[in-house]
Amino acid sequence: MSAVYNLVVLASRPPDWSHEQFVTWWRSEHAEVTRVLPGLRRWRHLDIDAALEPRSEGWDGMSVLSFDTADDLSRALASPEWAAAVAHVGAMRGRRIAVMGEEAELFTGP
Question: What does the pLDDT look like over 41-50, one tens digit per residue?
Answer without folding.
Answer: 999 999 999 9
